[in-house]
Fold these 2 entries.
Entry 1:
Amino acid sequence: MNYEKMLEGKRVFITTGSQGIGKSIALLFAEHGAAVAVGGRNRPKLLKAVEEIREICPAAKGYVCDLSRAEQTEGTCRQVLKDFGGIDILVNTVGVNRRCAAHEVSMECLEELLETNYKSGVRCMRQLLPGMLERHYGVIINISSIHSVMTMPGNFIYAGTKGAMNASARAAALDYAESGIRVNNICPGVILSDAVTDEIRQYPEGEERDAFVNLLRSMQPMEPGRSEDIANAALYLASDMSAYVTGQTLMVDGGASIKAH
């Protein structure tokens, strides 16, 4: 294996890659020789990200897609297959949260998170797996969440959708192991992604913001992580370094999941 180009010749679809973790994965995969397709709901951010990726991988393409809408998800997958002639590696990166307890859940909110966080990944798998089966090769990586394993108050639906993602990946790993297709999850902890940085900025400067930042820092033994930390884990699972790894959930959380609070 060429450790400088661990994904050379591979075609990758990252479902959301316009910013944060998805963008970091796209850039790193491109550096390692992959042809990269990325989705994103925000057109200006997506176009800007694709410009950066194309500096490394001129063949990179971006697709405006709202993963909460079934027809857009499936249509984007069909277009990606047409443009790239097949996809070898699928990375499901999307994740949205609407904080509430069980008795506060609206059916609209439930459907939005189910469609976005869980069903969109299933739809992408349905579209892309037939080609993987034909080639007897494929890698599927779900960017899940620490909330799928242990959570905090107010994350009833989010934790449920991410937990479903983990469980389905284990089942899929069994279904496709004999066909040379591996399926794994990554569970990030506190990552200073664009979304978390935006959340920090919502607090007024001063004591309130400092208290929130200190809360983030206290959640794990190590400092909060970076999007690049998740990208590095994804590269391991996408490459032949993990050729004997499937059905696993990798905690990339700075030790949060081993800390007794």
Entry 2:
Amino acid sequence: MLYSISSLKSARRSSEHGNMLFIIFIAIILVGALSAAIMSSSNSETSNIDRETLAIKASEVQRYASELERAILFIMSNGFSESDIRFAHPDAHADYGDLSADGDPTDQVFHRDGGGAAYREPPEDINDGSLWEFYAGTHLPGVGSNRAELIAVLPHVTQQFCEKINELNNQTTSPKDTGANPAAGADPGSCLNIGAVGRFDAGQQYYSATINTVDKTTFKQDQEASDAYTALQACVICSRDTNSANGLTDEFHFYHVILAR
């Protein structure tokens, strides 16, 4: 069978047109796959940055808590007692005292002639903006005797930060403090974040008649000793009654023992 030249050209153009459509179709698929891969990579990178930032901030908090602990030990090595320690600073709450009015600042944690610690606000985005607090109304598992320790508390941290700190401290779950009862008088209440009445100053120091004790069973357990491991640092959950229709509200508070007793 003979074909005319025009028929052959028409058939060739039809074939080329079909090939071009196929190439375009394949190109669209490849572009879509590449875009999805880029978006996935971008999302994964953002997630990794968030985790890395959280880890950096958690380490920063840990380093600062250790700095406070060293300042306490330095003050006591100079002959001061555990009751002499003071936390006054212009940026701290006035309950901690007036640093400028202290004639002998060598017992002051945040003075260069005392403990020499810097006063720092918490890193951004790890809590509600609350400043560091200092209390002596809680006994932590395995620490010192059965008396209340002097602790630094970073209140109202995020759940994400709480979980990261506990991970760094090998706490498999978030330890708990009941938080049911508020502090009043000589009673520190049932949360290590005692509140304004418990701030460690000249008037309020170590609670002794009543001491808050956390739920030891919620801390990492030493199976051989049938007790919780020593917990010098962790983040605890306090369940507060906020008088709301939702009942109890979980609060997350980081603590570090700066003086074991």
